[in-house]
Amino acid sequence: MAHRIEKINKLLIKDLSRIINELFCDKISFFSINDIQTTKDLGTSYVYVSSSDKKNDLVKFLNKNEKIIRYNLAKKITFRYVPKLNFIYDENAEKVNTVEELINKITHEA
């Protein structure tokens, strides 16, 4: 079952990226889907996104347009039910950037 959910998550990442780019390329400059965690019953997918834009604006915008995104996703995938999408800002991307900056500082000082 876990292997099936991993496959579904990979498929969702690929298709959601395309759909969001097609629908909202003029409203969202740069974003990345870092991870998706789908529940075992396939009812909900938690989509972790990051962006160079303001994080709250991106998440609010995507959650507001979740029905449109989900409708277009249903056209592309062949699941019986399309999971509800819950967009969450991925704080890990910012933490990785901070750690990289600190490492670069240390290596340049040494």
* Beta strands, count: 3
User: How many helices in DSSP terms?
Assistant: 4
How does the helix and strand content classify structurally?
Answer: alpha+beta
Task: List SSEs in N-to-C order.
Answer: HEEHHEH
Mean pLDDT equals 88
Radius of gyration, in angstroms, nearest whole number: 16 Å
What is the top-level CATH class? Alpha Beta
CATH superfamily: K homology (KH) domain
**CATH structural architecture:** 2-Layer Sandwich
Instruction: Please list the strands of the largest sheet in the order they lie side by side.
Output: 1-2-3
CATH topology, by name, is GMP Synthetase, Chain A, domain 3
Cα separation of the termini: 49 Å
Task: Determine the strand fraction and express it as a percent band.
Answer: 15-25%
How does the overall form come out from the CA principal axes?
Answer: globular
How does the SSE layout of this entry go?
Elements: H1 2-24, E1 31-38, E2 44-51, H2 55-64, H3 66-76, E3 84-89, H4 91-109
Parallel strand pairs: 2-3
Antiparallel strand pairs: 1-2
Helix pairs in contact: 1-3
Report on the structure:
- The chain has 4 helices and 3 strands.
- The mean pLDDT is about 90.
- The chain has a single domain (about 1-110), classed as K homology (KH) domain (GMP Synthetase, Chain A, domain 3), CATH 3.30.300.20.
- The protein is globular, with a radius of gyration of 16 Å.
- A 3-stranded mixed β-sheet has the order 1-2-3, with helices on both faces.
- It has helices at about 1-25, 55-65, 65-75, 90-110; strands at about 30-40, 45-50, 85-90.
- The chain is α+β, with helices and mostly antiparallel strands and about 110 residues long.
- Helix 1 crosses helix 3.
- Strand 1 and strand 2 form a beta hairpin.
